[in-house]
């Protein structure tokens, strides 16, 4: 007999990195207006002396121009760059086309800057190995966000939603002479939540946020909300729950769990949202 929880996704580590289908089996531009159709762009050949090469199809778009989005193909010399997808992007920018635009910072999976859609899955370019990508590797920006240029999404809206949940310690008692102490067992309750790096891979991959992004806070903001609700040092649980007591801000979550499947840190935003719902029900009973 299979375990009853065998189909519950608790971490992105449970998801195969090589799915059978990278995307739904419909034409790429199905139902898309003419101005938004993705066209085939330029192909850049590998250096003549390259031995090991790999093709990368990269989404290119400049909203300030008049051209449609396009996919440019770059043949990368694997012996001249590092092992990660981010290394390939940097090699392309430094050696082929300096106009390719993307975010990066730490290169260690800490800052969340280089979040993008790699072969149909939201992930960090600095932690995804080139050898794990398809042929050709397909690189797009995070979905459901306005594009500043190429692989750079506009995070203004999701950061405003993050600010809405007031992600800082709130207390009403006088501050102690030293730090606010916390028992080890209370500190352990934060594990799996404080590690969020705000890359927004989860929010970008959430269908509920696609449909109601103007009112549903999304998994990244709600995971951060639970991080403070479960913190024993915080004294504003009631106010935080009042803020979330809204038909759309949290209840638009339909437990699809794309958020948990695509978290590059292996966190479980779906569980955090369920814990918030449970806390609100417990408060009402």
Helix content range: 25-40%
Low-confidence parts, pLDDT < 50 over ≥5 residues? Answer: none
The order of strands across the largest sheet is 1-3-2-6-4-5
Count of helical segments?
A: 9
**What is the count of β-strands?**
8
What distance separates the N and C termini? Answer: 37 Å
General description of the model:
It is a single chain. With 285 residues, the chain is an alpha/beta fold. It has two domains: 12-153, Beta-grasp domain (Ubiquitin-like (UB roll), Roll), CATH 3.10.20.30; 156-169 and 184-284, Fumarate Reductase Iron-sulfur Protein, Chain B, domain 2 (Orthogonal Bundle). It is built from nine helices and eight strands. The chain has helices spanning 85-95, 156-164, 184-188, 201-204, 207-212, 219-229, 237-244, 258-261, 269-284; strands at 39-44, 53-60, 70-77, 115-118, 121-124, 137-140, 147-149, 152-153. The strands form two sheets. It has a six-stranded mixed beta sheet with strand order 1-3-2-6-4-5. A hairpin with a 2-residue loop joins strand 4 (115-118) and strand 5. Helix 2 packs parallel to helix 6 (219-229) and helix 6 (219-229) packs across helix 9 (269-284). The radius of gyration is 21 Å and the shape is elongated.
